[in-house]
Amino acid sequence: MVSLRLAVPADVPALTALVRGAYEHYVPRIGREPAPMTDDYAEVVRRGHTWVAERAGIAVGMLVLVPETDHLLLENIAVRADAQGGGIGRLLLVQAESEAVRLGFVEVRLYTNAAMTENIAYYQRHGYVEIHRAGNDGFSRVFFSKVL
């Protein structure tokens, strides 16, 4: 069984390792490390709005949310490589949408790298609509929105 909770500073090493493992297979496709691999997770956790999915006390997924003025930004969602395909990503998406409603937002936005084609299809299957594509921070990104 997977449970969700807010991240605490003690989670930083596990979250950093989780993200590296979840994204490392994209490095050859993109030509460099995806942005989440370079984030400072001590700072990310300090800001709050970071959730950990755990199974038997082990971090198997994470979710980073950023409240913006008029929407909730889903900044990062990652599932441990050996736990992918088991519904953890969907659980984290539902958490993001629930948290958006709790915070008074009616929209969740997110973006992914254009080279992460499986992510693009995944978000579309879960009701996210592509709103535009653009270069951002040196990456080719696809931006999505879901009105709740």
TrEMBL record:
<dbReference type="InterPro" id="IPR050832">
    <property type="entry name" value="Bact_Acetyltransf"/>
</dbReference>
<dbReference type="InterPro" id="IPR000182">
    <property type="entry name" value="GNAT_dom"/>
</dbReference>
<keyword id="KW-0012">Acyltransferase</keyword>
<protein>
    <submittedName>
        <fullName>GNAT family N-acetyltransferase</fullName>
    </submittedName>
</protein>
<dbReference type="Pfam" id="PF13508">
    <property type="entry name" value="Acetyltransf_7"/>
</dbReference>
<keyword id="KW-0808">Transferase</keyword>
<dbReference type="InterPro" id="IPR016181">
    <property type="entry name" value="Acyl_CoA_acyltransferase"/>
</dbReference>
<feature type="domain" description="N-acetyltransferase">
    <location>
        <begin position="2"/>
        <end position="148"/>
    </location>
</feature>
